Hints:
519 residues; 26% strand; 27% helix
Amino acid sequence: MSRFIVATSVALASWQSFVSAIPSDILARTDQVVLSTSNVSVSFDVSAGSRMAMPLDPQLISMSIEFCYAVDFIGTPGLPNKYSKQLLQNIQDISGVPPILRIGGNTQDIAKYCENCPETMNSTYRSGSTEAINVTFSKGLFRAMNENGPLNQKYIFGLNLGQDNVNIAKSELAGALNYLDQSKLIAYELGNESDHYIWPQVNYRSPSSWSMAAYVKQTLEWFPQLSSRKRFQYGSSAANPATVSDFTMVQAVKWGISKIKQVKIISSHSYMGNRCTPANEALLNLEDYVNHMKTVQYYASYIGEIAAAKSIGAIYHMGETNTVACHGKDGLSNTMGALLWMIDYSFYLATLGADRLFFHNGKGDFVYSMWEPVALNESYPAHINPQYYSMLFAASVISDISNPRIYRVAELDTYDPAHYAIYSGGNSKLQKLVILNTHYHNGTTASRPAKYVDLSPVLGRKLKVKRLTSGNTVARDGTTWGGQKVDGRGVLVGRETWEESTDGVVVMYASEAVIVKAR
Length: 519
């Protein structure tokens, strides 16, 4: 298809100036027909942005793995999952560290330790369910965690609170202390989503007696029996602070969790939508996820949760999260649009003071996973989903920057462009700009809207640009990052490409993201 451009919103002289600044490799592309365009000039107070910027953790986008699928992702002693290991290594090769792996989720609250059981993990499933109803694991799991990841691999490990038996958690912790290299542990975590313990399908606690006060009381009693020296992640509640709930971290702090000296991390869980019932699934719409302002509005409600963590000297994790609860929605959670949402959501939460986010993963119908860890059958091999590129993108943002910090340039944002300024340490000089064009484009029409963004006011006229792109918002494959893609072995292949601009202008098609820096 030949490429042609019709511009009705700009004067001819201005148009010629923009086109002359577009890198030649972009102009040479013949897969886009642009019928609608807009021009944007980016200008903001760079020094003020530096003063308000928040720390940007190198492991900002990390992973949560459903407990019963830990072996599928990690492997067993002597038999690592080489595909997973390569995908994690790709991130470490860019940023110096792989994403942290949290081993937890619903099935951590039914798991039990069996030190010398022959299998590393043994899970029992109810017909029609992909979350185990019984899990036992041996010391082999800890050996696999020690051996099977990249050199710098770190973990958060979930202990069982749901069964209401402290001896189960004590046994799990004793096994970990005996067989797991403690230098690989960020923290332990006691229980998963205790606010759900009264649900009929869970039924771990009585509705008449279970509350945040009861939860805090029980943990105050349990922690001295577990360990007085180990770091713990606390909370892991799925309650949305924008709704009426007793199970918020603000409430936990009021009930005295600062008395638990092992608590070093406060954790919330959040999904922006769910498909746990047909009625809720009917409300899901990918266009809502790629609307930047809706993402901002939804997650602004966590400001108080983050502040509660900081008030007791803890760091803040969004300890389990993803697009759609109950394992994601096919055609939404595994698309280019979901990938852009993950980046936007993660960076926005970082500007509020959050330290890390852990996107949940499983096997089979967990369609929101970063990757499918093993082949399910001959026609369904191990493979990545577009979401995996979020970690490559975030790693590239912080690479070559000392003590990176991030600031959302809110005055420039609308529903489809999002702008994040990246700084280094105490330096007020702008190091990089991250821009997302989340404009929804489903690929059913020939036209693909484009924005021509003039960054010369803040970065000068000579720029380098690394581009995350795919065919359209609903694409489930074909994603490339700086011209590279991940092959069937998990290896990044192709030549890494940084486009160049000599006039400070960057062209962005609908459903793309870029990292821009001065040359």
